[in-house]
């Protein structure tokens, strides 16, 4: 099994994951960033605990990159505070950069240097954890599936491999905290799966805390332990990823030969059917969702047997769009999901 830190020479020593207490690694308090009349980040308060994989989700322009640049002190906030790994982040102060593995926006590399040379430059950066010998470079090249491209100049890399190189640079010092803006940008589905597995392994086996941004809900839902949705600069919803299924709406869709009669039968038995589009009926109550067989029995005995009966679940994209107030399917919009933390 691979280890992120090469076992042989003790190079790239990062903070021991077991030594960290379950505490906030990132503390963002009432953070805002305005560009003239644009509120890129608007009064965001957010905490990321050690060992969490926190996914910031949002459409293009939601404020993800701005929030990440604020986190790293690359730009100054209009208001609010940021603490990373227990230290206040001040714009222009690069201390946070040295302690964090990061990838911000487009992957960049020295175009005339090879993959290996680019990584060697990062390995030798002053102010980062000491890494001696080439083994850490070899190791990270292999880990990011870059071996066939190791001697290729960065300018000749595909977008996906450039993104891999950027991730290799973020991971090379085995940081205790990774901050990644759209880490799977430009990767094909196999590459996305590879990076997902790599990040999950890094977090689970090495205790690395990860904050990543994405506009791909389905992708991050399989990786993140906590999800925050940004919309127009505001953090509008936060919840644990494990709760996602509970937040997704379900309904039982019925087709009948006579919707009017079926509706009357169901009402007489205490159900609350609503008309579906273009025809049929929907039931959303738990009693119907958990026992569709009983619904069928009631309809058969009432003389309005169903011709079809489907349990349908809102997909992740619809959930996301509904949460930001842009429902894709009118039939699934409206009711707030139970247990969500809504940020006004
Ligand atoms: N330097 C800047 N000057 C003016 N407006 C800016 C600047 N940077 C960001 N913005 C604006 O702030 C808002 C948030 O942008 P940001 O890049 O943070 O969003 P994002 O969620 O990262 O989007 P994307 O997924 O497209 O990268 C947008 O309206 C953007 O146009």
From TrEMBL:
One Pfam family hit: ABC_tran
Keyword terms, alphabetized: ATP-binding, Nucleotide-binding, Transport
Residue ranges annotated for the ABC transporter domain, each copy included: 26-257
Source organism, top-level taxon: Bacteria
A GO molecular function held by the record: ATP binding
InterPro entries per the UniProt record, alphabetical: AAA+_ATPase, ABC_transporter-like_ATP-bd, ABC_transporter-like_CS, P-loop_NTPase
Family statement drawn from the similarity comment of this UniProt entry: Belongs to the ABC transporter superfamily.
Protein's name in the database: ABC transporter ATP-binding protein
Gene source species: Nonomuraea rosea
